[in-house]
Write a structure and sequence with these properties.
Length: 250
C-alpha cells in the first residue's frame, strides 16, 4: 500500500483561497483527499475549487472570518457534522510596525486570527477526532516560531504560541490516535511577504542567508503537508518541521 495515499479522507484547509493554503489543499487533493476550503473571502467556483475538482476530488467552500470569534464558533459547529480526517490550520494574518508603535488593535487581531481561533477550531474538530480514535492536525507555524523577527511582535508571539500549542496537544492526543504537528515555512513568495520582496535591501539580505538561493514557492510546502496528513507520519507528533531552503541551518 502507498502510505501517502489519502483516498477516502476528508481534509479541512483554512486560508485555502490563495498562497500556501491553496498549495496545501491542492497537494492533499492530488493525494486523494476531498477538501473543505475555508477562507474569509472564499467564493463559489473559486480557483481552488476548480483545481480540486479537476483532480477528481470533491470540494466544499465555507466562508469564515478568523478575526470574528462568533464566526469561528459557527465554523466549528458546521464541521462537527463532517467526518474530518485532516485539519490544516493555515489561516493567518500579519501586521508590521515597530514594537513601540505596534497598536493594541494590531496585537489583538494577529493573536485572534493566528492563535486563539486556531485553538478554538482545533479544540472542536480535535474532540470529534478523539471520539473516532484517529486524525491528523497540521498547523502552519513560521520561522518566527524559532526567531523574533523584525517589526512583527504580535506575529512572532502568535507563531511561537503555535509551536507550543502543537506540542501541548500532541502530549494529550497522540496516544488516542490523533497526531499534531506543524510546518514552519521559510520566506515564501506570497502576499504576506510582499513588503519584504519589494524592499531591495531586505530582500537581498534574506536571499543571501537562504542556502537554496531563492524565495520559496507555496508548492514547496506540498510534500510536508501530504506527509503529515498521511499514514507515513503515524509515529510523528509534536514536531515543527521547517521548510525553509536551509535558513535555520545557516
Amino acid at each position: 500500500m502507498n502510505p501517502f495515499d489519502l483516498t477516502g479522507r476528508l481534509a479541512v484547509v483554512t486560508g485555502a483561497r490563495r498562497g500556501i493554503g491553496f498549495a496545501m489543499a491542492e497537494a492533499l487533493a492530488a493525494a486523494g483527499a476531498d477538501i473543505i476550503g475555508v477562507s474569509a473571502t472564499i467564493e463559489p467556483d473559486s480557483a481552488i475549487e476548480r483545481r480540486v475538482t479537476a483532480l477528481g476530488r470533491a470540494f466544499k467552500a465555507i466562508p469564515a472570518d478568523f478575526n470574528d470569534p462568533g464566526a469561528v464558533a459557527r465554523l466549528a459547529e458546521a464541521l462537527a457534522t463532517e467526518p474530518v480526517d485532516i485539519l490544516v490550520n493555515n489561516a493567518g494574518t500579519i501586521r508590521r510596525a515597530p514594537a513601540a508603535e505596534h497598536s493594541d488593535a494590531y496585537w489583538d487581531e494577529v493573536l485572534q486570527v493566528n492563535l486563539t481561533s486556531q485553538f478554538a477550531l482545533t479544540r472542536a474538530v480535535g474532540a470529534a477526532m478523539l471520539e473516532r480514535g484517529r486524525g491528523k492536525i497540521i498547523f502552519t507555524a513560521s520561522l518566527l516560531s524559532f526567531q523574533g523577527g523584525i517589526n512583527v511582535p504580535g506575529y512572532a508571539a502568535a507563531k511561537s504560541g503555535i509551536a507550543g500549542l502543537t506540542r501541548a496537544l500532541a502530549n494529550e492526543w497522540t496516544a488516542r490516535g490523533v497526531t499534531v504537528n506543524a510546518i514552519a515555512p521559510g520566506y515564501i513568495a506570497t502576499d504576506n511577504t510582499q513588503a519584504l520582496q519589494d524592499d531591495p535591501d531586505r530582500s537581498r539580505a534574506i536571499l543571501e542567508r537562504i542556502p537554496a538561493g531563492r524565495w520559496g514557492r507555496p508548492d514547496d510546502l506540498a510534500g510536508a503537508t501530504v506527509f503529515l496528513a498521511s499514514g507515513a507520519s503515524d509515529y510523528v507528533s509534536g514536531t515543527v518541521i521547517p521548510v525553509d531552503g536551509g535558513w535555520l541551518g545557516r
